[in-house]
Amino acid sequence: MKVIQCNNLTKKFGHAEVLKDLSFSIEQNKITGLIGRNGAGKTTLLKLIAGFTKPSSGEVEVFSEAPFNNLKISQNMIFIDDNMVLPQSLNLTETLEAVSQFYPNWDSALAKRLFEYFSFHPKQRHQNLSKGMKSTFNIIIGLAARCPLTIFDEPTTGMDAAIRKDFYRALLKDYLDHPRTVVLSSHLLSEIDELLEDVLLIKNGEKRLHMSVEELKQLAIGLSSKAEKIEELIRGKDVLYRKTVGVDSTYVVVENDFSEAEIQKMSANGIELSPVSSEDICVYLTNTTKGGIDDVFTRS
Amino acid sequence: MILNTDGSKPIYKQISEWLETEILSGNIRTDEKVYSQYQLAEMFNINPATAAKGLNLLADENIVYKKRGLGMFVSENAAKIILAKRKGQTLQRLVEELVRESRQLGVSEEEIVEMIRLENRKCKGEEK
Fewer CB within 10 Å of terminal CB in chain B, N or C? Predict the structure, then answer.
């Protein structure tokens, strides 16, 4: 069953087209990572799915309905980000109590255990928490709500490494016990790629790729050897990344469409083959200029 | 086991190899149930779909068999299949490396064979 379906989805703010003709669907009970550079349109997309805003053209459907102004969707969906507006007059325990009213699957025992584990004080107020603690409190709401569609937009902003790890583990464990559709946007793909089933990569508001993490990891391969050997191999191929080290050693990243026999032949020819991490692939695929930051410092 | 996340080996492959080792060492015996994708996901902190892929790899090689609705179980010939596969893969790879390196160094075939014989004799001597 498809939980999210987008067809030719476009969103404009004034003259700026933030999402362009986006079509994809997300299956039920999968954890999908939404990956993209700053300003790629991740949050805009998630807010359309959550029904906070309306598409300029095209359509978005969640549980087969348009999410904008839709009570059924807001009851079955939760959107967690660092701009969540919570009542200022309530302390943290009262806030959890108030939020719990909105979600039929709310697990107050889980909320309480996470609250204690992360050492919150019941009388504290949300607006007085540090950035990382705010994010941590928000994910407690996101997990305990157990919504059939759970959206986390950059949930780990400001969290230290230990709490990020705890959050990923908590999300996985609760997902195993209570499978649901999760969409998670993040810059830190290397931290979450084992947690994810699929990756949706967007670039400048357009879909760049949508596939399983395992496929993504096999997508590209790094080759390094003497420049002339490399040039021969990559003729006619799309080079995702290139770096020259020393006099004539070259490292390139190309799409991995080599057969097993070709790979063996290459390593027999003294070409070093290396895997490319999913995070690096995404960086290369979303680079706007080839060469990257080094070009800024090259004065010719 | 700690998963190696540097990308040199896919996670699902590491899962299937870990299960193979568990079978070889007798921790999971013939006709016993192997861990489910959810148990593996919990143990190794990975997405259950990745764990399922590792299990399916073993099913494809007849190391485990599926019982509908019950899970995966160790086949009768599991250990034999694993051993045969590892011999074929690991040894073959080492031989390939040996041949490649010796060609680069200009070492003749006779010299290599002689080196292997010598090493073998040494090992036998140690066994006595």
Answer: C
Among the partner-chain residues B8, B47, B104, the one whose CB lies closest to the CB of A197 is B47
Nearest one of A80, A76, A79 to A103, comparing CA atoms: A76
Q: Which of A194, A141, A189 is nearest to B45 (CA)?
A: A194
Q: Taking CB atoms and an 8 Å cutoff, what residues of chain B touch A214?
A: 10-12, 50, 53
Task: Indicate whether this complex's ipTM tops 0.90.
Answer: no
Looking at chain A, which residue has its C-alpha nearest residue B102? A268
Take residue A24 and report the two structure tokens written for it.
């994809």
| A213 interfacial to chain B (CB closer than 8 Å) | yes
Residues 6+ apart with CB under 8 A from A44: A11, A18, A19, A53, A205
- CB contact, 8 Å: B105 with chain A? no
Q: Is A31 on the interface with B (CB under 8 A)?
A: yes
* Domain A220-275 coded CATH 3.30.70: yes
Question: Cβ contacts (< 8 Å) between B42 and chain A: which residues?
Answer: 172-173, 176
Q: What is the pLDDT of residues B49-81, one digit of tens each?
A: 999 999 999 999 999 999 988 999 999 999 999
Extents of the domains making up chain A: 2-216, 220-275
**Rounded distance, CA A294 to CA A296, Å?**
5
Give the C-alpha separation, A22 to B9, whole Å: 33
